[in-house]
Structure formats: structure tokens, C-alpha cells
Amino acid sequence: MISANDLSPAELAALLHFHADAGVEWLLEEEAIDRFAEFEAMKAARRPATQAQQQRPVAGERPAPSQAPPRPNTAARPAPAERAASGPQPAIPDGEAVQQARFVAETAQSLSELKTAIEAFNGCNLKHSARSTIFASGDAESGIMVIGSAPSAEDDREGLPFSGKSGQLFDKMLTAIGLTRSAILLTQVIPWRPPGNRAPSAAEMDICRPFIERQIALAEPKAILLLGNFSARFFFGENDTIHGLRGRWKEIAVADCVIPAIASLHPQDLLTAPVNKRLAWNDLLAFQAKLKSLSLLRN
Questions:
Q1: I need a labelling partner for 27 at 20 to 30 A (CA). Which of 19, 50, 75, 188 fits?
Q2: 260, 250 in Cβ contact below 8 A?
Q3: Helix (H, G, I), strand (E, B), or coil: what is residue 280?
Q4: Would you state the pLDDT for residue 145?
Q5: How far apart are the C-alpha atoms of 126 and 74, rounded to whole Å?
Q6: Could you give the CA distance from residue 229 to residue 200 in angstroms, rounded to a whole number?
Q7: pLDDT beyond 90 at 272
Q8: What residue spans carry the Low complexity bias annotation (predicted)?
Q9: With the C-alpha atoms ordered 208, 131, 216, 223, is the resulting torsion angle positive or negative?
Q10: Average model confidence (pLDDT) for the chain?
């Protein structure tokens, strides 16, 4: 086995990037260590020494028989708030986290306020393993919204939706129908990358739902393009695959708005199976035609 001491800084950086791309979130010891038992042993070792020090009389003095026990010295102890701040954040029950997310989302009166609120929100465990909070970018006044599923490893590193190779393909898809990133509002259903690119749990989806719905309510798009299996299922409420959900216009209700939406394959799906590009192209043409009928795209 090659030791880390034998690698150059560039080789170490490449190795860490490889682990990150593979979904590795934590580096562990080769053998398991029981930290709880280790901590209890340290406390047990300190206890006799502390008791002996407290019972040892000062030379030349005789303790009074009715002397009150010495008060503990609390001056050097950190305040409870300080101790809590230095440790990990306590887990919030899923139901309470959903209520907090709804309150945070409904309080925001603009996309910029919502972005700040989501970045400060700690009720979803996905945030604690992600590097970045992915939020909507582009033109909120365009009336055109594209929603992906969840951030990828590249999105997490760059802090932007649709980064890396799938993002390059996505840009070409937009160009093919006369659009650019700057001309639409682009976002993801989930603002934080799930570890290892796994599917978000039902609880995580419930916690994040108020955030994406509030983005839609504030932007008030006239048409939405959903990319990916997860995004289509999330909004259509169906369990079919993207091949069964794509290519058909449906309506999604958010707040007081009913918005037409169409689903298509995610760019990453097209990189994995290029044969599906024909299907995605048909969906893009249907999206383009809808935008033209709504006067959101020039003929």
C-alpha cells in the first residue's frame, strides 16, 4: 500500500478529487475505534487523581471539622451556549424541520431573501455533508423556468446548477432552441447534494419542498421544463420512469398558480445513453413551441 507520505501535493489533490467524485464523504481509520469507551476510560483515569488532590491537606494546616466543602471553580468553565456552539448541531425532528422550512420559505418576499434564508437553514441533514447550497440563477423575469433534480458532485464543487460535462451538454440543448442560461431561471429541486449522489429520502424531500415551491411562487414562470426522473416524479406525483413521464404537458399547482410543465431526460441521462438524445430533442421542440405560443420566445 502506498503511504500518503510518498505522494506529492499534486498527487494527493488528485486522489482527494477522485474520492469526492466517487461519493466518499468521510475518511476513516483502517480499524474501528470505540470513542465512547475511550472517553469513559479517560474520565475514570482522571477521577482518582482529582479526588486525591481535593482531599490532600495543605502543609502546616489542619482543616476545620465543620468546614464547608469548597465551591467548584466555575470561572474557567465555558458557558452553556459556548459549549453548545463548539459541538455538533443537534438533530431536528423531521416534522419540526418541515414546519421550520415552511415558515422560512413563506417569510421570504424575494428570491434574494429566500436564498439567504436557505443558506442559514440547518434543519436538513443534507446541508451538513454538502459543500454548497445550490439556488436559482439566471433571469427571474423571463417567465421560463428549468428545474433539475439534485446537485451533482460538479454542482456542489462549483456552487452552480448544471456544472461539468452535463452542464456543457445542457448549454448546447438550450442553444439549439434559442435559449441561454442567462435568459431563463435555472434551479434544482433539492438545494444540497445527497452524499454519493443517492436519491433524497422522503423526509428530505418534505423538508426541501417549501424551498422549491417558494422559488416557483416568487418567480411566477409561465412554463416549466423538468429535467430528470426525480424532478418529474416530485412535481407530477407519479412513480413512472422518465420515459413514461416525458413529452406530455401537465399542470402543476404551486400556491395560487397553475403552471404548464413538461418533463424530459436529464443531460446526465443523455451522456450515459446517447441514443436517447432523439427523445430529448422532441421534448425540447415541444418546449420551444410552447414558449413561442406564450410569446416568451421569438419566432
A1: 188
A2: yes
A3: helix
A4: 98
A5: 37
A6: 12
A7: yes
A8: 47-57, 73-85
A9: negative
A10: 83
Please state, in angstroms and rounded to a whole number, the distance separating the CA atoms of residues 131 and 2.
28
Contact 266, 149 (CB under 8 A): yes
User: What residues contact 169, with CB distance under 8 A and at least 6 apart?
Assistant: 267, 270, 271
Where do we find the cell 461519493? 23
Which is higher by pLDDT, 160 or 86?
Answer: 160
End-to-end Cα separation, the chain, in angstroms: 62
Q: Give backbone dihedrals phi and psi of 269, rounded to 5 degrees, phi first.
A: -65, -35
CA-CA distance, 109 to 121, in Å (whole number)?
Answer: 16
Question: Which of 109, 299, 127 is closest to 214 using CA atoms?
Answer: 109
Q: What is the mean pLDDT of residues 88-101?
A: 75
Q: Evaluate if residue 74 carries a pLDDT over 50.
A: no
Distance of CA 1 to the CA centre of its chain: 35
How confident is residue 70, by pLDDT bands cut at 50, 70 and 90?
Answer: low
What is the phi/psi pair of residue 144, to 5°?
A: -120, 125
Q: What are phi and psi of 178, to 5 degrees?
A: 80, 25
Pick from 45-49, 129-133, 152-156, 206-210: least confident: 45-49
Backbone angles phi, psi at 77, to 5 degrees: -80, 140
Specify the CATH architecture of the domain 94-293.
3-Layer(aba) Sandwich (3.40)
The answer to whether the Cα torsion of 26, 28, 32, 38 is positive or negative is: negative
Instruction: Give yes or no for a contact between 293 and 256, defined as CB atoms under 8 angstroms apart.
Output: no
Enter the pTM of the model: 0.70
Model confidence at 37, pLDDT cuts 50, 70, 90, reads confident
Determine phi and psi for 246, rounding to 5 degrees: -75, 160
Q: At what angle do helices 277-293 and 164-176 cross, to 10 degrees?
A: 50
